[in-house]
Specification:
Chains A, B: Keywords: Flavoprotein, FMN, Monooxygenase, Oxidoreductase. Chains A, B: It holds the Pfam family Bac_luciferase. Chains A, B: It comes from Metabacillus fastidiosus. Two copies of one chain form a homodimer. The first copy, chain A, has about 450 residues and is of the alpha/beta class. Chain A is about 35% helix and about 15% strand. In chain A, α2 (about 80-90) links the parallel β2 and β3. The longest helix of chain A is centred in the middle third of the chain and has 19 residues, at about 150-170.
């Protein structure tokens, strides 16, 4: 298998029925199919037709818009990621299946097992987007009054990932024998306890599922805070991140890749894929119209709610056509710190009102918005890719299925023509398609006791 | 939809590659396909061809046979139930999909959400087998030294089921509007907090997925202890239970159905389906040979381990051709209490050695074994069904695929000919096929606050 290093990686980030906060109101969005598997199956097959590396699902454990009473204007129903990705594994053959799971409200044994199971089901196409959760609404669904502090969440996340990878190593690759004559189902000397005892977790192991095709499902992360960057440099294989400008993205790219050496990792072992919200038109005018159509569909309360959640500050009491109020110091924000900084800087830089700011971010939600003809979209991706800002992109279609169809039918052929993207899948697993090595089972180095 | 009350319900209990502890050594068992989705897909499609009500998956959170060093002779790898059932939902159309989930090592929010998601995916075919887990090996994978006491587990289970059903009710059936013009995605007055605050759980809600086709996925239980029977009478819709004799099964049937009235439920709202391990031959001699073949394939250590686990007593130090040692009092058993009693009584009654006892239970594992020609198998099912011992049966094929193929191809046609089993699916959902009512959303009675 040869990987052309000049080819970018692409993710299809599914938010059903689209990333724009008003996507469900778009005349062509299939909002009525939001709980229909056949619709999402069609989307996944489109992504596969486009040779995307992965289908990517975000996740959270609470409805949005309760506090501001905009729950009725917000899409608050969706499939749980494991059930959906497992179903999609049967109707696709090559595309990777990346699900988001929080380390704050789950147990390592369950998470290790579910991803191994999805990896077996899909023939080696599973990936785990590791998040730490950041809302009090989620905490209140899990016996807590408010969510853990940022440092505690990252401390727990570090140990969580460590336990999960130990469990994935608890069966050696060749542990299964299935020798009927000799009555040896497995080689018991190749199945190991993990005997983890840490601050957050005590897990004996081994896992009750054999090592999966990829060894470890691909590990994806999103955090861009200091703690997030360090965790990513140590453990992530894909970073899904949010940057508005080339300079910011370049600085982040150099920063994280530079941190990897001290963990014995080469820069190639991590693919940095910023999110991109593409507004595509056959002409520049059509692209502009598509953008305006979506902006006009944003209910005012829903826009304010979206912005409030993103900066962890309730804006419902302030004039919508006035500026942002004074915001708390960054240290006092116990939510997505990088997103807070990004939006505050954007509002300051361009002197935006609350309404202007929510219209600006209602689609991309802090990610980079690119707009224009298919050629212009391809140009903008190529610029970042060739200038040390990205190894690829996580594509966030404004509405579905149209936004994905347009990208696959209009933009991908241009990228392929320029030699910037694959025309066929070359690997058998997600790791191989991403150009990532299969992890060596390191338990012999770190686990002393076998069962 | 009309349900013929004279028709039994049937479950296909999948333990891959078969229920017998030596199933994987059977010459025709596809042991090498244990982690191959296409194999299990074929089994599910066979069950559907046979018009089974459900495919049933057991589950546990630890490997077996560690302590007795028989891990290499034991099948310790399998798919996680949600990933597998979701994948199966895409390759079947009518058969129900019942997964086992423990209330001891999970959170109600996740469980309510996953079952709602599976129910949406499958068009209303999901069922939850509620168990409380009973092994220290599982506890040690979840931060505990030993598992909760029996009473504590049931106390937690009662509250857990209560929270889950509240969450399933947190969206009214007609909450979704998806009115693009009016900017109303949902009717917010029909989405409710659950605000549960109990001894074990504090959960605000609502769920982040709309009410599913069945309202509640079908609730299945297995416990036959005093606490288990009471919980079942209050909340179960299907009971999967284990009895050896007609008299025991009749007594249990009358007991549990008799307890339902005080919870305002009619006996029809609960289907009692004992497990049955069918050893089928085209002749009586062939059936006997099939049984002997499996018995001879049991490795001695694996047999002792199986028995030790089932009675929660380590038998590895005792002569295998001698009797059971003195067993502890029932009150001191902190595992499956009903299974302990059943096996102790069986050994006493027939004066069995350890080897004889493990050979006897190595297939059915405490459930009823029936053996013979297809006619004789059908007779034995009919006897219990028509004499107040069962509403149907959970069929436990000795090995796969052959044990299931034989049941579907040889036994089901006889049951159908006698008018004891359906020839076509008549309902659209699992509830309809089982003859169970769709639950009324009772949140207005018990939840005061809307969001």
């Amino acid at each position: 298998m040869t990987i052309n290093k000049k080819e970018m990686k692409l993710g299809a980030f599914f938010m059903i029925p689209g990333h724009h906060v008003a996507a469900w109101r778009h005349p062509e969005a299939e909002a009525h199919n939001i709980m229909t598997f056949d619709f999402i199956k069609r989307l996944a097959q489109t992504a596969e037709r486009g040779k995307f590396d992965v289908v990517f699902l975000a996740d959270g454990y609470a409805v949005r818009g309760k506090k501001q009473n905009t729950i009725g204007q917000t899409v608050n129903t969706s499939f749980e990621p494991f059930t959906l990705l497992s179903a999609l594994s049967t109707v696709t053959e090559n595309v990777g299946l990346v699900g988001t799971v929080s380390t704050t409200y789950n147990e390592p044994f369950h998470v290790a097992r579910k991803f191994a199971s999805l990896d077996h089901l899909s023939g080696g196409r599973a990936g785990w987007n590791v998040v730490t959760s950041g809302s009090n609404a989620e905490a209140r669904n899990f016996n807590l009054e408010q969510h853990l502090l940022h440092e505690k969440r990252y401390e727990r996340a570090e140990e969580f990932v460590d336990v999960v990878t130990k469990l994935w190593d608890s069966w050696e690759d060749d542990a299964l024998l299935i020798d009927k004559e000799a009555a040896e189902f497995a080689n018991s000397s190749k199945i190991h306890n993990v005997n983890h005892k840490g601050k957050w977790f005590s897990v004996e192991g081994p896992l009750n599922i054999s090592r999966s095709p990829q060894g470890y499902p691909v590990i994806v992360q999103a955090g861009s805070s200091e703690a997030g960057k360090e965790l990513a440099a140590r453990t992530a294989e894909v970073i899904f991140t949010a940057w508005q400008t080339l300079e910011e993205a370049q600085a982040f790219y150099a920063d994280v890749k530079g941190r990897m050496k001290k963990y014995g990792r080469s820069p190639d072992e991590l693919k940095i894929m910023p999110g991109v919200f593409p507004v595509i038109g056959r002409t520049e005018e059509e692209a502009e119209e598509n953008k305006l159509l979506l902006e006009q569909l944003i209910p005012e309360e829903a826009g304010i709610t979206l912005l409030s959640n993103m900066i962890s500050v309730d804006l419902s009491g302030y004039p919508v056509d006035g500026p942002l109020p004074d915001l708390p110091e960054l240290e006092k924000v116990n939510g997505g710190k990088s997103r807070f900084t990004l939006l505050k800087d954007l509002a300051d830089r361009e002197n935006l009102t609350i309404r202007q700011l929510y219209q600006r971010i209602a689609g991309a939600r802090g990610h980079r918005e690119i707009k224009g003809t298919p050629e212009q979209i391809a140009d903008q991706l190529q610029e970042w890719f060739e200038n040390g800002a990205a190894d690829g992109f996580n594509i966030m279609p404004p509405y579905l299925p149209g936004g994905l169809d347009d990208f696959v039918d209009l933009v991908i052929p241009i990228l392929q023509e320029r030699g910037l993207f694959r025309t066929e899948y070359t690997g058998n697993t997600l790791r191989e398609n991403l150009g990532l090595k299969r992890p060596v089972n390191i338990l012999n180095n770190r686990l002393k006791e076998t069962i």
